[in-house]
Backbone:
């Protein structure tokens, strides 16, 4: 099970830190990703990190503003979001992919999903 938290209502330019806590199994050998879905839009990739944290990928729209990280000892992955923009408004989901592979950027490749946390950025 994955539990995302940390969302909220902020103003443009503010920061938020999302957390995704895993329970029920150890996710240290899983790639972890963040995706988001805005109203009326399809789910899109945001960021992903390999099982040891050595490899990360970001969507072009968030590169330089968002940082994904993980703490395997705490079974938690984070998404630090800086310089938020109104277009970042969405429900953010964390996901886990089994295996010590290059972390995927396609949602269909993930095995487990969290319930989502709402991020709203006002202009």
Residues:
């Amino acid at each position: 099970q994955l539990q995302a938290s940390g969302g909220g209502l902020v103003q443009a330019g503010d920061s938020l830190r999302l957390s995704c806590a895993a329970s029920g199994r150890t996710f240290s050998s899983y790639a972890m990703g963040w995706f988001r879905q805005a109203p009326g839009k399809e789910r899109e990739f945001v960021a992903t990190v390999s099982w040891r944290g050595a490899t990360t990928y970001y969507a072009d729209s968030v590169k330089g503003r968002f940082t994904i990280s993980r703490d395997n000892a705490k079974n938690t992955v984070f998404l630090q979001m800086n310089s938020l923009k109104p277009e970042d408004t969405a429900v953010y989901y964390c996901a886990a992919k089994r295996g010590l592979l290059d972390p995927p950027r396609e949602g269909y490749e993930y095995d487990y999903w969290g319930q989502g946390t709402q991020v709203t950025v006002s202009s």
In short: The two ends are 34 Å apart (CA to CA). Residues 41 and 90 are 9 Å apart (CA to CA).
